[in-house]
Write a structure and sequence with these properties.
Elements lengths: L2 H5 L10 E3 H14 L4 H8 L12 E3 H15 L4 H6 L9 H7 L4 H10 L1 H4 L4 E7 L2 E7 L25 H25 L7 E4 L5 H10 L4 E4 L3 E6 H4 L8 H19 L3 H13 L6 H8 L3 H10 L4 H19 L4 H7 L5 H12 L3 H5 L2
Helix pairs in contact: 2-4, 4-9, 6-7, 6-12, 13-14, 13-16, 17-18
């Protein structure tokens, strides 16, 4: 299916706002039916069709899936319902990705597949795996275009600018909480045992009861509020051999996923600009004019296409810099000045001020989270 054909199947054709409807929407319908909810009526209220087939190529907007999860919470009068629904996810719900993950050789390779193919699940996802001295941090950051993080910090909750988060951002947390729970559940299924992380990082929960529900799925795990969502695993767990390892089958399914993702993003201007900025930062060629030349268009044409996607070059550059900065700081292999130069800043002081404005933490504070 081409990108144009995919776009015609949903109300919002913006790729970074798409999800895999047959996976997530089907899961919601299945689990709510078991709880006696009138699924057809609820889906009609949300303006979403009840899925009749299981197809990884059919997409749905993030706004729509969040609306479904909020309605599920409302209909059941249970603020933890989104987390409970995704705690029942099956590997088969992810189609080729589920099969590939189940065939992974080690827990680290399982994490790497979730990272590499995260856009197969949700195309706005931004996942990193950061090697730290005592383990691996599996980090998922929210991609936003709103200036929601202030220079101040909530010292009691250790979470930056939480009172300034927009309503849309808080709603998005509901989806992140659900997906995070689903990730833990599927990981445990592959390992055929509970794989408890050392530490879990959460943006302030959507509801106080959600924290209790998440703790139920994370035994003996320290939970920390942070400007990102993630889990940190001991290196002994990361190197653990998995019981269903099958490298050949994993590679076959990897190829299927790569083909589907390529079809999805081959005409996606935001994806292409982001990739070029990442490559250009290493050689100092990451300006809008640099990227426009590489794309074979004028700066004006580039911005017009980004305007159509409700974003801008500066938004994408900020997102890439923030993502790489978090990775470099957690890895703790480069000095602040080196990180600054790698990201196109003139000096370490300018970078540190920017990082504090992005996250609410200084680089050193963020490193110690």
């Amino acid at each position: 299916m081409t990108y144009t054909e995919q776009a015609n199947t949903v109300s919002s054709p913006t790729p970074e706002l798409l999800n895999v409807s047959a996976n997530h929407v089907g899961l919601i319908a299945r689990e709510l039916s078991k709880r006696g909810v009138d699924v057809e009526a609820m889906f009609a209220e949300a303006g979403v069709d009840v899925p009749q087939t299981h197809s990884p190529s059919k997409r749905i907007s993030v706004e729509q899936i969040i609306k479904l999860l909020k309605l599920a919470i409302e209909k059941t009068d249970d603020p933890t319902m989104a987390v409970k629904i995704f705690s029942k996810v099956q590997l088969g719900d992810l189609d080729a990705l589920g099969f590939a993950v189940s065939c992974s050789s080690t827990y680290l390779s399982l994490l790497q597949r979730f990272q590499r193919f995260s856009k197969y699940i949700m195309s706005s996802s931004n996942i990193q795996i950061i090697e730290e001295p005592d383990g691996y941090l599996f980090l998922a950051e929210i991609e936003d275009n709103d200036d929601i993080v202030e220079n101040n910090q909530d010292k009691d909750n250790h979470a930056p600018g939480l009172s300034h988060f927009s309503s849309k951002y808080k709603d998005f947390i509901i989806l992140l909480e659900a997906l995070g729970t689903g990730f833990v559940k599927m990981s445990n299924d592959v390992c055929q045992e509970k794989m408890s992380p050392m530490k879990a990082y959460l943006i302030t929960p959507s509801h106080p009861l959600v924290m209790e529900e998440i703790r139920h799925h994370l035994d003996d795990c320290e939970v920390v509020l942070a400007p990102f969502c993630g889990v940190k695993f001991n290196k002994n767990i990361a190197d653990k051999k998995l019981p269903m390892a099958n490298p050949q089958m994993a590679r076959i399914n990897d190829e299927i996923i790569v083909k589907q993702i390529d079809e999805m993003f081959q005409n996606d201007i935001v994806f292409r600009v982001e990739s070029m900025i990442r490559d250009g930062l290493a050689i100092g060629e990451f300006s809008r004019s640099d990227v426009a030349v590489k794309l074979g268009m004028s700066e004006r044409s580039l911005q017009q296409r980004l305007d159509d996607r409700k974003t801008s070059f500066s938004d994408i550059l900020l997102r890439v810099r923030k993502t790489l900065a978090m990775q470099f700081i957690r890895e703790d292999k480069l000095r602040i000045n080196q990180i600054a130069y790698a990201l196109g800043f003139t000096n370490g002081s300018n970078f540190s001020r920017s990082f504090k404005s992005w996250t609410g933490y200084t680089p050193n504070e963020f490193k110690e989270l």
